[in-house]
Amino acid sequence: MADLERVQTQILHRLSDLELSLLSQSFSLSSTATATATADDSATTEDRLSAILRAKSVRDFSFKRVSSDYYDWTLEARRDVLGAASIHHLCKSIVLVNTQAPSNVIDCSNRNYSKYYVVVVQYTARFNAETVKNFLYTLNNGMISKKKFNMRLAPEETSAKLTGYGHNGVTCIGMKTDIPVILDEAIAKLNPDFFWLGGGEVDLKLGIRTSEFIKYVNPFIINCSGN
């Protein structure tokens, strides 16, 4: 009996040690997960977008934090604070919605006939929605009636939901939705080929080498503006 009790006691001790070991491992994993989540939560917009760009082999880019009254400044003042080559190198991203798309076209799964598009244009240019309509009509080989194209500026709440970025902070890098991008041809022709656009926050701007932007984003490049 004494031997049996001794064996039972040893088994109980081992079970106790095993439970403590498992609890310790669980606590360690939980702590690691919490620390990782905390690190992710603390990552800035600049950190997140920089990581995305580097992962896609984009190397020539720069972020610049600007004053909260940036949009009250002249284009010349904005050019100077960013160190842009000219006011023509200052660009913006806008989200368009095709208000005449059929009821079955509700997302961006078809790049050639998407419900939404992001257009990147210069601040110095006048955007022409009609040219985008004509381009998309031609892109679809005239198989879709022109009546099924009507490109309009998407409501601000729709833009924010699709991109994850608010007013004056929209950028086509790291969007929540993979929206097809249209780049105005005038930007592709800029010299030097390094332009500025929104950086994900209203006071954060992103400068990027045009050739690298095109290689990563793979936009449609069309003439969709005038001076």
Topology:
Layout: H1 2-42, H2 45-55, E1 61-65, H3 75-82, E2 91-98, E3 116-122, E4 126-127, H4 129-139, E5 151-153, H5 156-163, E6 181-184, H6 185-188, E7 194-201, E8 204-209, H7 210-217, E9 220-222, E10 225-226
Parallel strand pairs: 3-6, 6-9
Antiparallel strand pairs: 1-8, 2-3, 2-5, 4-10, 7-8
Task: Give me some keywords for this one.
227 residues, alpha+beta, five-stranded mixed sheet, three-stranded antiparallel sheet, 7 helices, 10 strands, 40% helix, globular, YbaK/aa-tRNA-synth-assoc-dom
Describe the protein in words:
It comes from Perilla frutescens var. hirtella. The protein has helices spanning 2-42, 45-55, 75-82, 129-139, 156-163, 185-188, 210-217; strands at 61-65, 91-98, 116-122, 126-127, 151-153, 181-184, 194-201, 204-209, 220-222, 225-226. With 227 residues, the protein is an alpha+beta fold. The strands form three sheets. It has a five-stranded mixed β-sheet. The protein starts with a helix and ends with a strand. The relative contact order is 0.17. Residues 15-40 have low confidence and may be disordered.
Question: Helix/strand/pairing class, anyone?
Answer: alpha+beta
Strand segment tally: 10
Shape annotation = globular
How are the strands of the largest sheet arranged? Answer: 5-2-3-6-9
Total helices: the number is: 7
GO molecular function: aminoacyl-tRNA deacylase activity
InterPro entries: YbaK/aa-tRNA-synt-asso_dom_sf (IPR036754), YbaK/aa-tRNA-synth-assoc-dom (IPR007214)
Domain YbaK/aminoacyl-tRNA synthetase-associated: 87-215
Protein name: YbaK/aminoacyl-tRNA synthetase-associated domain-containing protein
